[in-house]
DNA sequence: CTAGGATCTAGAGTCGGCTCTAGGTCAAGC
DNA sequence: GCTTGACCTAGAGCCGACTCTAGATCCTAG
């Protein structure tokens, strides 16, 4: 069995994860890795494919708005090994709820945005009768202090 | 007809929009209002229902991730009055695209999260055969790096 | 031998979007 | 008259998540 232990430099990992080398060092410093990053000659970081796989998960969790402390908590649990699956499940379920809620909120916002787009389209092209339905809180814009949370998930690229 | 011009204090507006008084002053300072906020005796801010309606729109746009500069741009256009509807439409369409993309990204993330939740559920309740399908690009990434042993793999510089 | 490039550490800086503080004005109630 | 509370301005501070800098080390190529 040829131990194909991939040995990647920080630059290579940056390249294939999309994270910067700075971010990789930062993540390590923040304790987000499951296993300590190995070091090669000269104290240089050496990453395995498992590290890259873990980072891929991290990136997805981050992209969906999980804050670093929660990610660190999750990494801690995985690092501790079997036995804490319930806690991991709880953590994941909570995050799932967050993401689901966020998607719902965005969908609501999208409703207003679509409505606005429709209004301007009609205005610029009055021929086509506009029949936009908007099952959202736009007519009653003055209604309730809808609890919309500003500033939640920030996702790559932007 | 009785002039029903609602005159609201900053505190009242804060209360019914959910924004803080600090945020309201900040938004004004940032030029996010369509019309200049009136002032009452003692230089106190006086808001109309229109202001509140506009803020409601702002809140929704912010909640969907529109950055302040874009919001300011939109306010500028509205302030300038009729004639720039195309630009407003463009702005709104761009934002619509952003939000749609963001929802898509979050949905993808949710796929991994659901998968993870499923894995842990099965692990804790092995009776029910779990058949989770994950129609996302994550099968390999979701592999559990539980207890990864890092041998004394030496990194030969080669 | 020397230059270039990737890496290292520790720590400072950046950015967006508020949030808070300090010091002051003003109107109402006791 | 005095206190309280809402409001004012200008500007400082905060938070999260990086990003960048400085100065050093090390490897490889020419």
UniProtKB/TrEMBL annotation, chains A, B:
<dbReference type="InterPro" id="IPR000551">
    <property type="entry name" value="MerR-type_HTH_dom"/>
</dbReference>
<keyword id="KW-0238">DNA-binding</keyword>
<feature type="domain" description="HTH merR-type">
    <location>
        <begin position="7"/>
        <end position="77"/>
    </location>
</feature>
<protein>
    <submittedName>
        <fullName>MerR family transcriptional regulator</fullName>
    </submittedName>
</protein>
<dbReference type="InterPro" id="IPR009061">
    <property type="entry name" value="DNA-bd_dom_put_sf"/>
</dbReference>
<dbReference type="InterPro" id="IPR047057">
    <property type="entry name" value="MerR_fam"/>
</dbReference>
<dbReference type="Pfam" id="PF13411">
    <property type="entry name" value="MerR_1"/>
</dbReference>
């Amino acid at each position: 069995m040829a131990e194909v232990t991939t040995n990647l430099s920080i630059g290579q990992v940056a390249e294939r994860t999309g994270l910067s080398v700075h971010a990789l060092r930062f993540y390590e410093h923040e304790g987000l890795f499951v296993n300590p990053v190995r070091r090669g000659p000269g104290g240089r970081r050496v990453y395995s494919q498992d590290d890259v796989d873990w980072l891929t998960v991290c990136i997805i969790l981050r992209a969906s708005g999980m804050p670093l402390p929660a990610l660190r908590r999750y990494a801690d649990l995985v690092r501790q090994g079997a036995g804490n699956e319930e806690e991991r499940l709880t953590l994941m379920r909570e995050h799932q709820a967050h993401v689901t809620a966020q998607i719902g909120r965005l969908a609501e916002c999208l409703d207003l945005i679509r409505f606005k787009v429709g209004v301007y389209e009609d205005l610029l092209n009055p021929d086509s009768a506009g029949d936009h339905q908007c099952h959202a809180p736009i007519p009653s814009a003055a209604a309730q202090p809808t609890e919309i949370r500003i500033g939640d998930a920030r996702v790559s690229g932007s």
